[in-house]
Structures are given as structure tokens and as C-alpha cells.
Write a structure and sequence with these properties.
Elements: H1 2-12, E1 18-22, E2 36-40, E3 42-45, E4 48-54, H2 58-67, E5 73-75, H3 80-91, E6 96-99, H4 104-107, H5 117-128, E7 134-136, H6 139-147, E8 153-155, H7 172-177, E9 186-190, H8 199-212, E10 217-221, H9 227-233, E11 238-241, H10 245-254, E12 257-260, H11 269-276, E13 280-284, H12 287-292, E14 300-302, H13 307-319, H14 321-334, H15 340-356, E15 367-369
């Protein structure tokens, strides 16, 4: 979703953008008004069949780029397709940059392959260090990656579409379908339903909320490989499956509370979407929460090493109506100035500097600087 927005915005600025991605039946291949899409061969990811892993395509990319040479190649995912794109670009003398936006090496413990963590981190470092710049969503993550041997790091933050996500979209009719009255707290979760999302803690938090306030409702928007297990574990939850963007925005705005239990994201767009929609949020103090949440002002944040504190914060939101109202009132205003236009402007400038050559990068830019 992030790079869909970035491709769209770069296209609207007059850049010619071509997106190479694995072929998927659920993604449209119709022409996009702002960028060109080229579906590529791929295979289902083991344990996550709804996503596909792009296969290496160095020769095909080389042929395409000989016919129509790009000024720059940007690699958004470090799999076989992305790694082959780095090799193809370097072999043709085309500047290449990359983005680090998924902690694949940390996911190994959630999928039963923890011994491969070091190898996964080594692969990620090898792919990224062959590019002129590697972008990560926060300064804190840049610092972590630098400590792990990643080079030439830059911040590519995340914007918020406040036109799409807004408290004005609140729907009493939708709340009614959820079985929630005007004053009943609705707790929302949105995103991929995957093992790394820390659902055990999220459900513990919700049970504590329900215990202190039996009128709480729990709505889960999205889908993924563990959905059936979650439905069995939380039979009184409302599972909507995937919904179109406009329905997602309405779901956010029609809820009251967002509890973000995950510690695996590099950013966590769902948190900023919840803030923009006017929800009272509780989250660990990292990634998007560290950037945007001011504790007890526009949300609640707790130390990453204290899961009990997150449960306690969630319970506070369930039982304290005045606190919920105050935080909800401050949430949307606190993110109003963080537009995608500002983020894409900084990214555009960084890409231009990469095209001009490594000599154009100052030492400050190459070490976790911000646009």
C-alpha cells in the first residue's frame, strides 16, 4: 500500500514509473492512470499463499532496460525478484536504491525457522548494501540497521491521507451492525492476520477490557493465514475479512479505540490511520507510535519490554470515558500536517541525488538523515 501511494504520487509529478511485481489474481492488471504495471512470474509463499514471491528475472529486466533505459531502479522488496533487479541495474550501470520496510529476519521465529535468522539478516544486508541508498521508515530503525552493518541509510517516512481517513466518516449504522450502541466502546484491529502480529497479547488486552467494561465490542478487519485460528480463539469478535479502502476508512472512524500490540513492524501505517480517524490508541513506544504518539496527550504509549503495561493502558481506555474522549479529540489534529505530499517530496529529492551519483550524497545524508 505504501509503494502504491508513492508510485501514484511520483507519476502525478510527471515521472514515468514502471512497477514490476509478482503476478496475482487478486490484483488488477488494468492500466493505472499514474504508473505502468508489469506482472512477473512468482510462486506462493509457504504458509502465506495469498502472497507471492517474485522469481529471479535478471535477463528479462536487462532486455527491457536495454530497450527503454530507466534513470533509476528502486527495489521495494528484497526477494529473488528484487535481488535480480539490483544485479541487472548494476550490470547496466543504472543507479539503484532500495527500501527496508519488512523485518523478514525477525519473522523467522514466528514461522518455526528461528535458526535462519542470521542467514536472513545476511541476505538482507547483502541486497541493500549493493544499492546507493537504503530507505527505512524511521530514524530509530536506521540506527538499528546501521549497527547490523547496513550502509548509506536514509529515512523514508510514511504519510497520512487525511482525506481518506477522517473522524467525519463515523457511521452509527455500521456501529449498529456491530451490535454497538452510541456509548459502547468499539475496539478495532486492522491488518494482515499473521503470526508475527502478537495476537496473544492483543486478545489478552481485549479480555481485560471486556472484563472492566462488558459493553466493549471487538472488530477485526483483514485476513491472513491465522484467521481461522483467531476466530476460534475469539468467538465473540467480529471478523469482517478484507474490505475496500473506503469501507476500511469508515470502519476506523466508526470505532473508538485502537490497541497496537505488534512489535514486528518497521513502521505500522495502521496506527497513523487510527489517529487520523480520531481513535484513542494504545501502543508500544516504537516505530510509528514513537514518532507520532505523545503519551497521555494524543494517545497512550508504553515501554516495549512491558506487555502488562499495554494491557493496563488498554483497560484504562475501556473504563475511562473521559480519557477516551480527550485522546480521540486530539488524535486527528496531531497528524494533520504529515501529508504524503511532504514525504514524497523528500523521497523524490533523494532519488534525484542518487541518480546524480554517490558524490552528491553528503555524509549526513548517508547516515540516517531525514529529508
Amino acid at each position: 500500500m505504501t509503494f502504491g501511494v508513492i508510485a501514484r504520487e511520483l507519476g502525478r509529478r510527471g515521472h514515468e514509473v514502471t512497477v514490476y511485481r509478482p503476478r496475482r489474481r487478486d490484483l488488477p492488471t488494468l492500466p493505472h492512470p499514474d504508473y505502468r504495471q508489469v506482472p512477473m512470474p512468482g510462486v506462493p509463499i509457504p504458509g502465506y499463499p495469498m502472497l507471492r514471491l517474485g522469481l529471479p528475472a535478471r535477463r528479462r529486466l536487462q532486455r527491457a532496460w536495454r530497450e527503454r533505459r530507466p534513470d533509476l531502479v528502486h527495489v521495494a522488496t528484497e526477494g529473488p525478484l528484487g535481488a535480480s533487479a539490483v544485479s541487472a541495474a548494476r550490470g547496466a550501470g543504472i543507479p539503484v536504491t532500495s527500501s527496508f520496510h519488512t523485518n523478514f529476519h525477525l519473522y523467522t521465529r514466528h514461522y518455526g525457522i528461528a535458526p535462519l535468522r542470521r542467514a536472513a539478516l545476511g541476505w538482507l544486508r547483502w541486497v541493500h548494501n549493493r544499492t546507493r541508498l537504503t530507505f527505512a521508515p524511521t530514524k530509530a530503525l536506521c540506527a538499528e540497521l546501521e549497527a547490523d552493518g547496513f550502509e548509506n541509510l536514509r529515512v523514508l517516512s510514511r504519510g497520512i491521507d487525511t482525506g481518506q481517513f477522517s473522524p467525519a466518516l463515523r457511521s452509527l449504522a455500521l456501529r449498529g451492525r456491530w451490535g454497538a450502541g452510541p456509548e459502547d466502546p468499539v475496539v478495532l484491529h486492522a491488518g494482515r492476520m499473521a503470526p508475527e502480529k502478537n495476537y496473544g497479547l492483543l486478545f489478552r488486552a481485549f479480555r481485560g477490557m471486556r472484563q472492566t467494561n462488558p459493553r466493549c465490542r471487538f472488530v477485526l478487519v483483514g485476513d491472513g493465514p491465522v484467521r481461522r485460528n483467531l476466530e476460534r480463539e475469539m468467538p465473540d469478535g467480529i471478523f469482517t475479512g478484507f474490505v475496500p479502502p473506503e469501507e476500511l476508512a469508515q470502519a476506523y472512524a466508526s470505532a473508538d479505540i485502537y490497541v497496537h500490540a505488534s512489535l514486528s513492524e518497521t513502521f505500522g501505517n495502521v496506527l497513523t490511520e487510527a489517529l487520523a480517524s480520531g481513535l484513542a490508541v494504545a501502543a508500544f513506544d516504537y516505530a510509528a507510535a514513537r514518532t507520532f504518539v505523545r503519551n497521555d496527550d494524543n494517545g497512550l504509549s508504553v515501554p516495549c519490554a512491558d506487555p502488562d503495561a499495554l494491557v493496563a493502558a488498554a483497560v484504562r481506555l475501556a473504563e475511562d470515558r473521559d480519557l477516551r474522549k480527550r485522546l480521540r479529540g486530539a488524535a486527528a489534529a496531531s497528524v494533520r500536517g504529515h501529508s504524503w505530499d511532504r514525504v514524497v517530496s523528500g523521497f523524490e529529492a533523494d532519488l534525484i541525488s542518487a541518480v546524480q551519483g554517490p558524490g552528491e550524497l553528503t555524509s549526513a545524508q548517508a547516515r540516517c538523515g531525514e529529508p
